[in-house]
Amino acid sequence: MCAAEAYFLRAEGALLGWNMGGTAKDMYNQGITYSLAQWGITDNTTVQNYITSTNKPIAPGDYLHSPAMTDIPVLFGTTPAVQLEQIATQKCWRYSLTAKKPGPITDEVTY
Q: Model-level pTM?
């Protein structure tokens, strides 16, 4: 398991009231940070702009005319239902990108 996945799981746990060593929002943002770093995106301004983005996903424009994956922004929401969807969405994006990345994933989580 990579660090991004661990942080997204911890965000879910925190949202459910478990002691995860931080808030759901903090764990969610760390998950995004590690996920982006896995792809070589480490510029703090770029990372923060993504984390605070209110833009919503767009349709991929594929031949199947698939709709957008969701209609929620990246910026951590105000309700538990939206927050759970955001965590799940970020995990899904991480998995879909990881499936295309060659080589092993070796980032580690530290507490």
A: 0.80
Q: Which pair of structure tokens corresponds to residue 6?
A: 């661990």
- Fill in the DSSP letter of residue 3: H
Average pLDDT over the chain reads 84
DSSP for 52-85, written as a single string: T----------TT-PPPS-S--SS--SSHHHHHH
Distance between first and last Cα of the chain? 14
Question: Which residues, 6+ apart, have CB-to-CB distance to 60 below 8 Å?
Answer: 66, 68
Q: Which of these ranges, 4-13, 29-38, 43-52, 65-74, has the smallest mean pLDDT?
A: 65-74
